[in-house]
Amino acid sequence: METVKPSAVTPGKKLARGFAKVLHLRAFIGIAQVDGLKNADENLKDEANMDKATINWTLNTEDEELQERIAMEALLAKLFASTSTVKAAYAQLQFAQSPYDPDGIQDADQVVVSELKRLSELKQCYLKKQFDPSPETAILAAESKELQSVIKTYEIMGKKLESQARLKESEVMFLREKLEEAIRQNKSIEKRLNQSGQLSVPDNLHITGLSPSHFITFLRHTVRSIRSFVRLVVDEMRSASWDIDAAVNAIEHDVVYWIEDHKCYAIESFVCREMFDSFHFPNFSLPNESLPDKNKQRQMFFGRFNELKSMKAKEFLAEKPRSSFAKFCRVKYLKLVHPKMESSFFGNLSQRSLLNSGGFPDTAFFTSFAEMAKKIWLLHCLAFSFEPQAEIFQVKKGCRFSDVYMESVNDDMLLYSDQTVESEPHVAFTVVPGFRIGKTVIQCQVYLSQHQTKVKKSTSSKLR
Asked: Taking every annotated instance into account, which residue ranges of this chain make up the domain GIL1/IRKI C-terminal (predicted)?
């Protein structure tokens, strides 16, 4: 058997072989690293391309949503604009009906029909997703259209309010004319009543049949006569260029009046205060006036009442210039009408001089005074014809209001006022005194100033 001998390998060959292995290994590792780097770069590039595509897709999606939202806003703007236009057209349609305007009605009807068609088109656009290609411009146009419709609506409302105001003005003028006519008729009736001397007391009335209702009825006539004379005095004051405020303030201090015309109540209060002074005395405090026995006084006063009630004051004074009534007229006129007042009104004192000499002036002013004096004189006679006799009373300034004994001449002002006022009303002054006949109380008339509270309307007998 042939023996295998080891090959003869020299040390140099072994070294060369080792280097070759090492170099081959290094080359293999280097190639592997280069291949790995190439693959990583490719992966990064792929990932970058994918992120860019994602961002582009996201941006495109957001842009589409924004465009769609703007398009919807444009659609809503058009919807609101059309609605406002319909509202304006409806307002115009209502305005054109009164007064009737056929052209205006036709124009408004056409606008309503046109806008309803427009609303139907907008509905179809929404359902079919057919939006305006220029939504920004469409929004501005719709907003402009809506503002124009709103302006038109307000213009129509303004015209309607102006028309209503003119209608109210015409109604006010008509009512003012009716009021003036009623005032003229009332003055005519009062004039005829004063001239005729007729009173609402039966001619065949017996003293035993007297009742408080007769006194109340006659008192109404008396108050009307007083106010007629007060109006004459105020007219004379104005003609003589008097300072009405100063005159009123001299009569009643520190009173706040609701309206300017209420100042005449202060003058009326002064007239009543002077004319009813000493009313509670049987002889009215007239000098040198004798009276019969107390048992006969009732018959005497009732006889005086019946004697004078159907006559005019001027005629009675001419027939009986020395009667008690004539003396009453002289005393009250000289006390009520101050010499300065008479001189200011008439430029002289001839009426006073005539009265002091025993005569009576033949003037409209004195005639009005005499008719008022006649009513007060007769009321006094009637008061002393009762058994027990009627008593007179009035309340002082500052007294708390009581609807049992008082009624306010300005209660309507207080009832319908919105001002905040005190809880406890007080009297500013008494205008017309009150009376008591047995258990019957006839309220006195008082004025409550502007700072007083509301009062209830009295259910008792009214004097006015």
From this structure: 392-447
